[in-house]
Write a structure and sequence with these properties.
The structure holds 3 protein chains of 3 kinds. Chain A is 36% helix and 0% strand. By secondary structure, chain A is mainly α. The radius of gyration of chain A is 22 Å and the shape is globular. In chain B, helix 1 (7-39) runs antiparallel to helix 3. Helix content of chain B is 39%, strand content 22%. The relative contact order of chain B is 0.11. Chain B has a 5-stranded mixed β-sheet with strand order 3-2-1-5-8. Chain C is mainly beta. In chain C, the strands form 10 sheets. In chain C, strands 1-33-32-29-28 form a 5-stranded antiparallel β-sheet, with no helix packed on it. Chain C has a 5-stranded antiparallel β-sheet with strand order 2-21-22-23-24, with no helix packed on it. Classes of the chains: A mainly alpha, B alpha+beta, C mainly beta.
């Protein structure tokens, strides 16, 4: 085999491998399994377990590293008014989701349980209203807010108002600018 | 499919035919000239090679033809351009991957919403306000008017008019993502009296369930959170992101003009929306059991 | 209009420049230029002073029976034991921890020798015995409150206070109940469920009692809750009448004797026809603010909140009767007149601020008026018999409108600041909380001035499509707020309602979110969000005394005479509310849109104060 051919073959293999990686990241599942298969049996909220120690169950997270699933979750976060309480992660009527604190646990199945079952201090139960697939997409997006999903799967930029402009607590000497709306 | 059914489409079709015929004639002329140049008699070749001929055919003819066409198309444009106020204004917003339709009152405020089907009165000029809710779409009903893009943040205005009753298919003509190919719709032209009656019905809230099964279907609809995305006036379902279903049973088609509107296809769509139209924004509701699904479809079918 | 705008902007800039020149000075002196009349402040003319409408006043007996002290909403305590000369000796007499860490916006009540104070959710009512040293607890009343209500309370789980009448203390719980508690024993007299948390309905306002009826209104303008005011029989708790803010005339209690002053407020079923179909059912207009009452005219005045959702594109039309004021008969709730401060509000300007019932000298005569510092940035003076706007003057930088047309009564909106779906509009002043939010002003008849807490905030606003899902927020906007011109975020302003200008202003680092009390000793007390409780000279605004209470103050101070005959000043500290949610609810400052955009303006608050509620009571030694 000529050396040039080998180079070409190597390059092709590399491209294939990269392509395959990309496929996984972008994998799209449309028709879900019948309900029940993907639902966690139970989500433990307390870290304390009476009796001898046991390993924490590894919860499922169908869209954990899936950019498309996280993107869908981002859209649903607005569609179902999650952003009304949790803003774009910083919170408001509801607790912030982008910080390190979790009231009812931050593992995927715990977040799933929080969304599906609700929580007594004001989190509504969405379980009967939203299909399991979409709750899992929301779980993935919520975890992405606190950087708990692989970086390559995270949304590149928020859908919300761009936050790059510095908060304008103005220099008093700077006059208030009169500007029209920015489309 | 390409037969024009309204004055605007008529004029547009006129230009299209003129261009087609003219283009064909020029093509034939060029072929003839090539033949002459290659195989023709010496005299003819001589004539073709003359400087005056080259200038006339290479410069004069295109300038004359294009100028003539420009004048003609400008005049056609002017003829299409609305002179009188429209009989009706309808806002059509492209969404991934369906059409949101609002009928407006004389102050431009929405009166009711529908989806994927635009009803218009025959013989009246109707103004469409074309918008986009997400990406660029393009609105195209070949039988009634030319294409016009729907651009986020802008409103494009298009006049349509149908001269005879009928159902005219439309299609998104700008690639807009996964389910673009299945983003169709229909324009239904009706005699004015029937149209007025239809308008009247659309203003009403959803009809109460006709029987026990339909009542069960409504409960299934509300219990499964369909109202988080869909609006059915009078039921408390007030979602805005999915198509308005207040009068869904009265439409001819389901799934942006893709399926006939029957009980069976409604049920099939709900249970396997992602199978029927992959990547669309409606999840497959696999958790709704058979009897509930049939009741839900029965109720939706009855929302006329 | 453009020219007017330009002029206003220039005036604003002049103010900003003047303030900048002051450098570190916290206070703008009495002689410095107020914003609306650059130049010299004429000396106060005592003859041209307003008074509290006598019929709406309460006896100056040293007690405090409702959150705003009297029906006029004056918050003026005539005791003059604590004065400018001796206030520097003011000491904390005792304090009381409420055990709650969320925002404390309430006013305590003092009746006889008992002080009553309502805590935020879970809305425990405490009775403290003033006759004994240290004011020990007499009793406490713990109502059963649904914890889920916390999740639908827009702007912290606050309560703004109670009312005393007929031997009972009345207040509302977060989950939408009105309760009556026997003042002597703490026994529950009755409890009536008025709101439904499943629809997002809560109650945070301080009710008042008029003619044997308890008047209560709901909150929930950010959750698509239809606003109402209800009257309950104080003996039984039975609902006597209910008046909605939107919908058909019958629901709004508009009848043949409804005679609004302006043409635009007349017509049939405007609460329906100024909305898209059915939008009025989820259109807000909540009655979550202050009620005042004129017994002479027998009219109750109440504002209505913002229309829902915030995104105005989903509700074309004037959206009546949101961001408006009603004058109603207390007996049956009939509306006599109404006026919309902000038709088709696009910036969350609720119209619920207090309307002080004053009699002012006006063009050579005495006029019965309401003085209303409105969120949209203007101090309105209204004829309280007819609803005619006599004056509307900007008291803070305003870019969203150019003024109020006194002929049509209509706010003149600046088209460039109109918001909508997918549109990012920058530098809208005032921001969503308004130039002044619910935090109530006080009026001193001794100086004729209204002492107003002011927010100096502007915002960027991006509208977006939103679905109504019952029990979840219905806002449809990304907002971020920031300090307005000058860089300070709050002020206490002394406003002369007759001369229609500010006499002095005190700049504060944070929005002034507390109430104000004015006293006969010519002092004005207010609190800051970084925990300082301050006393300033009512005439000059000079700082006379301050005390650090440990947590930011957003409560309403009061002044009363104790059983020992001494004058006391009391205030709840405990930061929170919409402005303080970043601390009270521990929000994340990295998201500028958190707490509906308020967090962006309050990023430094967590470095200045911590949460925790306590009542602080002060007296001279």
């Amino acid at each position: 085999m000529c050396s040039r051919c080998r180079d070409v073959a190597r390059a092709a293999l590399l491209a294939l491998a990269l392509g395959a990686l990309g496929c996984e990241r972008e994998e799209r599942r449309f028709q879900p399994e019948p309900r029940g298969a993907a639902e966690p049996v139970f989500a433990r909220v307390s870290p304390l377990v009476p009796g001898p120690p046991e390993p924490a169950p590894a919860g499922p997270n169908p869209y954990g590293g899936n950019a498309w699933g996280i993107g869908e979750g981002q859209r649903l976060f607005t569609w179902f008014n999650c952003n009304g309480c949790h803003a774009n992660g910083g919170g408001g009527m509801g607790p912030p989701l982008m910080d390190a604190g979790w009231i009812y646990g931050g593992r995927p199945e715990q977040i799933y349980a929080s969304i599906a079952q609700g929580r007594p201090n004001g989190m509504p139960a969405f379980g009967t209203r939203v299909p399991a697939e979409q709750i899992w997409q929301l779980v993935a997006y919520v975890r992405s807010l606190s950087a708990n999903v692989p970086k390559d799967a995270r949304p590149g930029r928020p859908d919300a108002m761009q936050t790059d402009a510095p908060p304008t607590i103005r220099d008093p000497r700077e006059p208030l600018r009169e500007r029209g709306p920015t489309p | 499919m390409l037969a024009s059914q309204g004055p605007h489409a008529e004029s547009t079709a006129g230009i299209a035919w003129l261009l087609f015929a003219g283009g064909t004639a020029i093509f034939a002329g060029v072929l003839a000239a090539i033949w002459l140049a290659a195989r023709g008699p010496a005299g003819a070749r001589d004539v073709l090679a003359r400087e005056g001929m080259v200038l006339a055919m290479g410069l004069g003819l295109p300038v004359a033809t294009l100028s003539g066409l420009l004048v003609h198309s400008l005049r056609t444009n002017a003829a299409i351009a609305p002179r009188d106020p429209p009989a009706l204004a309808i806002e059509v917003q492209g969404e991934q991957w369906w059409w949101r339709v609002h009928y407006l009152d004389d102050q431009g405020r929405p009166v009711f919403a529908t989806a994927n089907e635009i009803r218009i009165p025959v013989g009246r000029s109707v103004e469409l306000l074309l918008r986009s809710g997400d990406v660029i779409h393009s609105f195209w009903v070949p039988q009634l008017a030319g294409k016009l893009d729907m651009i986020p943040g802008r409103t494009n205005r298009l006049r349509i008019q149908a001269d005879r009753p009928g159902v005219f298919r439309g299609q998104c003509a700008e690639y807009c993502g996964g389910a673009h190919a299945m983003m169709a719709f229909h324009v239904v032209a009706e005699p004015p009296a029937e149209f007025e009656a239809w308008l009247q019905r659309q203003r009403e809230p959803a009809a109460p369930p006709r029987d026990a099964e339909a009542a069960r279907g409504r409960d299934v609809f509300l219990a499964n959170g369909c109202g988080l995305c869909h609006h059915v006036a009078g039921t408390g379902a007030m979602g805005r992101f999915g198509p308005d279903l207040t009068h869904v049973g009265g439409r001819l088609h389901l799934v942006s003009g893709w399926l006939p509107n029957q009980r069976g296809s409604i049920a099939g769509w709900i249970a396997s929306a992602q199978h029927v139209k992959p990547q669309n924004r409606m999840p497959s509701f696999t958790q709704i059991a058979g009897a509930d699904l049939r009741a839900l479809a029965a109720w939706l079918e009855g929302l006329e | 209009m453009q020219f007017l705008l330009r002029r206003r902007t220039l005036r604003t800039l002049a103010l900003a420049a003047a303030l900048a020149a002051c450098g570190d000075a916290q206070r703008e002196g009495a002689g410095a230029a107020p914003p609306d009349t650059p130049g010299v402040t004429p000396p106060a003319a005592p003859a041209l002073r307003g008074v509290v409408a006598p019929a709406a006043d309460a006896p100056q007996d040293g007690q405090w029976r409702m959150a705003s002290r009297d029906y006029a909403g004056s918050r003026f305590a005539a005791q003059d034991e604590i004065r400018n000369e001796n206030v520097s000796g003011l000491r904390e007499a005792w304090s009381f921890s409420t055990g709650v860490v969320r925002g404390h916006e309430a006013a305590p009540l003092v009746v006889g020798s008992t002080l009553y104070v309502v805590a935020p959710f879970p809305n425990t009512l405490y009775a403290l015995d003033l006759a004994q040293p240290g004011a020990p607890m007499k009793w406490r009343y713990d109502p059963p409150v649904e914890p889920a209500a916390q999740g639908v309370a827009c702007c912290d789980v606050v309560n703004r206070g109670a009312a005393f009448d007929d031997g009972a203390v009345f207040y509302a719980t977060l989950d939408g109940q009105a309760v009556a508690v026997e003042a002597d024993t703490g026994e529950e007299r009755w409890r009536t469920q008025l709101g439904d948390v499943n629809k997002g309905e809560t109650i945070t306002m301080a009710p008042i009692v008029v003619k044997g009826k308890l008047l209560v209104g709901n909150s929930g303008g950010e959750l698509g809750v239809r606003g109402w005011l209800q009257a309950l029989d104080v003996r039984t708790g039975a609902v006597v009448w209910r008046a909605f803010s939107t919908g058909p005339d019958a629901d709004v209690r508009i009848g043949p004797d409804f005679r609004p002053h302006y043409e635009s407020e007349r017509g049939r079923d405007l609460g329906v026809t100024t909305w898209p179909p059915d939008a009025w059912r989820i259109g807000g207009g909540n009655v979550w603010g202050w009620l005042t009452y004129d017994p002479e005219l027998d009219l109750v005045y109440h504002g209505t909140g913002n229309p829902g959702p915030w995104n105005p594109d989903q509700r074309p039309g004037d959206n009546k009767w949101t961001s408006a004021i009603f004058a109603r008969r207390p007996d049956d709730g009939r509306a006599i007149w109404a006026y919309q401060w902000t038709p088709h509000d696009e910036h969350d300007y609720d119209g619920i601020n207090e309307s002080l019932v004053l009699d002012l000298p006006w063009n050579g005569a005495v006029r019965k008026v309401l003085v209303h510092p409105e969120r949209n940035g203007y101090v309105y003076v209204l004829d309280r018999a007819t609803g005619e706007v006599l004056a509307a003057d900007a008291f803070a930088p305003v870019t969203g409108s150019t003024g109020v047309d006194l002929v049509t009564g209509r706010l003149q909106v600046v088209p460039e600041k109109k918001t909508g779906t997918g549109k990012l509009v920058r530098e809208i002043c005032p921001a969503a909380p308004g130039a002044k939010d619910w935090s109530p002003a006080a009026f001193s008849p001794r100086t004729g001035l209204v002492y107003m807490p002011v927010n100096n905030l502007c915002m960027d606003f991006e509208g977006m499509e939103v679905s109504y899902i019952a029990g979840t927020p219905y806002v449809g906007a990304n907002v971020r707020m920031y300090a307005g011109p000058g860089g300070h975020r709050g002020e206490l302003a002394a406003w002369d309602p007759v001369a229609r200008r500010a006499v002095w202003r005190i700049q504060e680092r944070f929005p002034v979110w507390s109430g104000v009390v004015a006293t006969g000793g010519d002092l004005v007390f207010y609190g800051t969000m970084d925990g300082w409780f301050k006393a300033v000279d009512a005439r000059s605004g000079e700082l006379r005394w301050s005390h650090q209470t440990g947590s930011g103050i957003i409560g309403q101070p009061i002044s009363y005479r104790g059983p020992d005959g001494k004058q006391y000043v009391a205030v709840l500290s405990g930061v929170g509310g919409w402005a303080g949610a970043v601390v009270a609810a521990q929000l994340d400052v990295r998201d500028p849109t958190a707490a509906l955009g308020f967090v962006n303006a309050m990023q430094d608050l967590p470095r200045h104060t911590t949460r925790g509620g306590a009542l602080h009571v002060f007296a001279l030694p």
